[in-house]
Structures are given as C-alpha cells and as structure tokens.
Amino acid sequence: MTKTMAQLPYHYGVKVRVFPSTEQKRLIKRNSDASRFIYNEMNGMNKDLFWLKQVKIPITIVLNRIADLTERLKKPSTAISNSHGWLNHPDFDSLMKANAIKNYKTAWKLFRQVHQAGTPKFHKRGYTQTYQTSCLYGAKVLEPAMNNGSVRLTDTHHLWLPKLGRLRFKGLPPKILERANDIRIGTTTVSMDAVGHYFVSLQIGSEHPFVAKQHAIESKVGIDLNLDNFLTDSNGQVIENPRYYRMIKGKLAKAQRKLSRRARRAKKSQRRLSESKNYQKQRLQVAKLQLKVANQRKNFLHHVSTALIKNHDLVVAEELRSKNMLRNHALAMSISDVGWRTLLGMLAYKADLYGRKFLTIDPRNTTQTCSHCGHVMTGKSKLTLADRKWTCPSCGTLHVRDHNAARNILAKGLATL
C-alpha cells in the first residue's frame, strides 16, 4: 500500500522561480483572489454565527440564520460554491478551494494551541498573490514520484501544474532532480512577490533522508546574539553584524518619500493608485530595495546557521523573545535588522536535518554571571550595555562581555542534558 505524505519519515521543502506566460499570470491572479475570497467567506460565516449565538432571546429569524450557517459550515466548499456561482468557473482549481478552507481551519487550530496571534483575520488585497494546490496520484500509480502526479516535473527545466499547464522553472537542487523517482510531491504553493517574481514551493517527502547525517565531531558551542556584533560563540569567535537595513536606510527613505508624493498627486487628481503609472513605477522601486535587504539578510543567516550546525554536535542559544524586545523603541530597528528569530528557526530545522542537537535556554543572568566562579553582578554593580569588558570582583577574572555570556549559555545547555 502506498504511503501518504504524512506517513513518510522524511520531508523537505524547495522553492523555485517560475516564468509564466501572460495567460498563466491571469490564472494565478484569479486563483489567488478566489482563495482569499473563500478564506474571508469562511471567516465571515464564523463571525456571524458567533454574534448571532450571543442573542439570548429566541427570535425566529435569528434561529433560522444560525441553523443555516451551521449547516453551511458542515460542507463549506459546496455551500460557498452554491452561493457564489462564479467559483464554478473552469479557471479555478478545485484543490485551491479545499486548501483555502483547510488553511482557515488550521488558523483556528493554531489559535487554540498558542493564543498569541489572535483569531483568524480577514485577508486584505495587496500587491502579492498566493494560493495552494495539492499533488494527486491516480489509482493506477503504484509508485508515486515527482514525474507522475497532478503536479509533476516534465523535464529538468519544466513542471506541470493543474489549470496552469507547463511552466519553465529554475533553482531546483541537483540532489532532488537525481532522486526524482524516489520522491513524492505534496502541497504546492504558487506565489508572486511585490516585485512581480513568481515562485512555486513544493512540499516533498521520501523514505530516505534528503541530507546525509553528519559524523560526530565532539564539538559543542554556545552562542550569544547581540547588536554590537551579530554573534559571539563560546570559543571566542566573533561574527560581525552586517547591518543590511542601515546601509540602505537613507536610499529607501528617499524612495518612500517620493512614493508618498506620487500617492498624494494621484489622489488629488482623483486617480486610483492601481491606475497611476508613476505611482506603480515608484512602488516597484521601493519593493525592490526592500526585497534586496530581505534577500541579503536571509542569505547571511543561511550561511551562519549551516556553518554552526555542520561544525558542532551541540549548539546552545538564548531563547529570545523578539516581540517583547521590540517594545524598546531605541533598539527596535537594530533588533529587526539582525533577524534573531529567523536564525533560531533555521538552527532548529537544520539541526534536525543534519542529525545535530540544538537547544535554547533561559537567558536570565547569562550576561551578569562570571563563567569562572559563578559570581552574579547585582545591584549597583550590575552591568549595563555600555560595559563591554569587566573584571569579576570575586575571582578577579577579566571578561569580554559577549564571550563570557556565550560560555554561560553553553554551561546552562549542558546542565539541561
């Protein structure tokens, strides 16, 4: 019996850039808009049902509406398509509808588990597009692979998607192409960013690992993330903070002021922004600058995280809550620029991928504690951000602040094992 994606032991994700034709771009936009509409329709029905149930007086029209909404939410795909006949047009992918409903239910599930982001909210229309479809395999397919499903590779440079047809792509790693017969495709996301680049993200699974497990090298490291330099490890090595946003901040601010002026002129002339060519041209320039910073930061974080995981059996870091730290307005821009949470996320999944161990520990007193004798600096002697070097009053050891913190982080991590 063929295993499903969930039953496969190894999963991986790849994102490739695609180059659709004008007709394919139209279909992507239509499916993206329909996906957003279905999500919002589900949200609207649930909100109506919630508020109607707050009415305690047995009013017939209210009770009938509650019964109608409850019945429609049992089979939302059929109910929404029956109410909005345009969704039955052949341009729309039926699996796009199913995935939009599934994503809404997943949002509720995450809310119940985490209770941080709040209940699902209505999705606004913007300059990006996205929708999801799924790869299905026919009953006659005995061994699902990357070349025999509804989403499939036709050759090393083209893939096939439902409704869209054949798309040229680039960026698929050779190690995936070489094992195409051993890999099956799951959920597929088609997207367009604010610059107008199109991408397809493939969830793939296999019976065999995608990356060879690294050999044990008996190396453990603690890392201290900070703003003065990006990272200091327990061995004393320092990685400088590239500050990509700060390098481009002046140029971006100038471009955004120009964009704001063009928006005011368009509104003064009673032109819609979507129809204002000058506004759209400048919006594209701003989006390109922002995309450049995001790509530079992501590339930097990938290199750092991969090097840490490949060169150490154990990596220990602080459990940083960037959301709370961003409340400090003096440091908010610098904290956003370094991308600490993204790095921690990368370290977590790469540790699992390469067979390493990654831990996060409570950062309490890691900076204020002497790694040599354990003395904690408190009261008037407590260290401030300006104290980059300090001498322990108990044992007299001279410490470099960040190196000392990294050693304490590693010690805490080892104590939890």
UniProtKB/TrEMBL annotation:
Residues 340-409 form the Cas12f1-like TNB domain. Residues 259-279 are annotated as: Disordered. Residues 259-271 have a biased composition (Basic residues). Residues 212-328 form the Probable transposase IS891/IS1136/IS1341 domain. Residues 13-42 form the Transposase putative helix-turn-helix domain. One of its GO terms (molecular function) is endonuclease activity. It comes from the Bacteria. Keywords: DNA recombination, DNA-binding, Endonuclease, Hydrolase, Metal-binding, Nuclease, Transposition, Zinc. PANTHER family: RNA-GUIDED DNA ENDONUCLEASE INSQ-RELATED, TRANSPOSASE. This is RNA-guided endonuclease InsQ/TnpB family protein. It comes from Lactiplantibacillus dongliensis.
